Amino acid sequence: MEQTKPYKREHYRLPLPTAYPVMFAGATAIGEGTITNLSVLGCTIECAALPPYATNLLLRVILPDRQESLPIDEAEVRWMDDRRIGVQFRKVERAANLRLHGFVWDRMLERLQTMKQERARG
Q: Residues 14, 103, 62, 90: what is their CA dihedral angle, to the nearest 10 degrees?
């Protein structure tokens, strides 16, 4: 009997203090939702209408760092539950990838600074 491997992330996903809006489109699904955690390789999206498992999606993420959306050219649905999907980014244009890495890095530094301050107080 073949054993299946549990899904394992390659990078830590950063929990977001504010959910960011996202729009998605695929061959059989169009929708919108909010991103509740983010890494340079994927994210969790909370949405009312779930696309099918293993669907490839085009994403447009609204981040607070700029006015234009962050384009993710291809993201695969890797898991799903009641109202959430986990997607892994498959194709991100170079400029968008640099922006994504910078954004995640800045949020991680902010989170580490907050944790350091909380430890010093308590």
A: -70
Token output for 40 = 């340079």
CA distances, 73 to each of 70, 90, 114 (Å): 10, 8, 33
CA triplet 10, 78, 41: central angle to 5 degrees? 35
Q: 110 CB contacts (<8 Å, ≥6 apart)?
A: none
Distance CA 119, CA 95 (A): 36
- Predicted confidence pLDDT, tens digits, the chain (122 residues): 444 445 455 556 667 778 899 999 999 889 999 999 999 999 999 999 999 999 999 999 999 988 899 999 999 999 999 999 999 999 999 999 999 999 999 988 988 898 899 999 87
Q: Enumerate domains of the chain plus CATH numbers.
A: 14-121 (2.40.10.220)
